[in-house]
Structure formats: structure tokens, C-alpha cells
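Anyone up for a design puzzle?
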């Protein structure tokens, strides 16, 4: 079996396109409606070893006693998120926590690496003011499921909203966010 060396090769092999990095209903200002603005996005493939090493690049957050919230105080936050394990695939894991609430300073730079570790589903990691598939959002493109030799991933750099409030991270694949693939971002 030939090894797929890039997302571009996978797209060509499977015959589907990568979703845009930012989307909104026609006529809407994307960044204003999503709350977050995208600075950059880079799709990539990672070996198992590189995926494990990437986890060590996360900014340490303060974990709440109930293990449901990660609080960050710096103006730059590095997150590494994975799709959930096989028995809970419609979820995210960030620092080992299931869909944690992320508390981030207003205007912070968020550098998020999303790694799709799913065996058979496409996922993405998007940020916005609502957690609905059709809501304006910014984040990763749709990422194919893992292969025998690689994980599909994307590094995105976002600017958090300057206005304190409640925002969300979520998967825009139909049915995924309603199925549990979302979390809250509190901007303080």
C-alpha cells in the first residue's frame, strides 16, 4: 500500500476538497460575527511520534478542581487538541480533559494544533460566538481521519475576541457539535 505523504495527496486520492478556513453566511463580516480572527492556518500530517511530541508543546493551564476548566493567564496560549477516544469520538481532548472550558485573556493569541485521531470520521476545530455548523467561525479546515501511517492535523493561529464573554470551540461537520463535539471559551 502506498503511504500518503500529504493532505494534498489524500485530497487527490479521495477526490474531495478541503473546507475553507473561515466561513460565514453571505454578506456577513467573518471576524466580527465569529468573535475570533484568524491569523494563519497550516494543514499538516504528523507521524505518531510527532503527535506525541506535539502534546508537550501546550501552554500549561490551571486545571479546576472538577477537571472541567483550563485557565490561561498569558497573552499567548498554545493548545493541542485531539478528537476523543474511540468510545467518545464526538468530543475533544485538550490536556487530557474532555471538552474543557477554556478561560483565556481578552485579545490573547491562541495557537491551536488540532490532530484528528479518529479512525473513520472527518473533523475540524472551529471557534465562534455560537456552536452551530452554519454559524460563522474560524479555525481548521476539515481534516480526514487518520491513516495507517499518519494523523491529519492543522496549526491555526487566532486572535481571541477583545470583548469579554462566552464563545465556543466546535466541529462544524453536520451532527458533530450536537453530538457533543464542542466546548466553551470564556474570554476575560
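Challenge accepted. My sequence:
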Amino acid at each position: 500500500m502506498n503511504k500518503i505523504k500529504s493532505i494534498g495527496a489524500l485530497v487527490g486520492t479521495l477526490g474531495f476538497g478541503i473546507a475553507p478556513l473561515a466561513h460565514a453566511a453571505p454578506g456577513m463580516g467573518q471576524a466580527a460575527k465569529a468573535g475570533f480572527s484568524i491569523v494563519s492556518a497550516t494543514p499538516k500530517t504528523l507521524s505518531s511520534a510527532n503527535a506525541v511530541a506535539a502534546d508537550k508543546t501546550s501552554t500549561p493551564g490551571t486545571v479546576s478542581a472538577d477537571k472541567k476548566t483550563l485557565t490561561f493567564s498569558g497573552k499567548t496560549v498554545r493548545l493541542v487538541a485531539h478528537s476523543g477516544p474511540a468510545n467518545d469520538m464526538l468530543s475533544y481532548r485538550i490536556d487530557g480533559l474532555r471538552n474543557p472550558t477554556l478561560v483565556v485573556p481578552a485579545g490573547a493569541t491562541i495557537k491551536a494544533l488540532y490532530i484528528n485521531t479518529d479512525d473513520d470520521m472527518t473533523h475540524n476545530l472551529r471557534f465562534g460566538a455560537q456552536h452551530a455548523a452554519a454559524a460563522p467561525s474560524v479555525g481548521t479546515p476539515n481534516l480526514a481521519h487518520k491513516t495507517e501511517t499518519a494523523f491529519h492535523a492543522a496549526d491555526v493561529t487566532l486572535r481571541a475576541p477583545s470583548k469579554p464573554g462566552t464563545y465556543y470551540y466546535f466541529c462544524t461537520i453536520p451532527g458533530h457539535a450536537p453530538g457533543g463535539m464542542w466546548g466553551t471559551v470564556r474570554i476575560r
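A detail worth pointing out: The first helix runs from residue 7 to 14.
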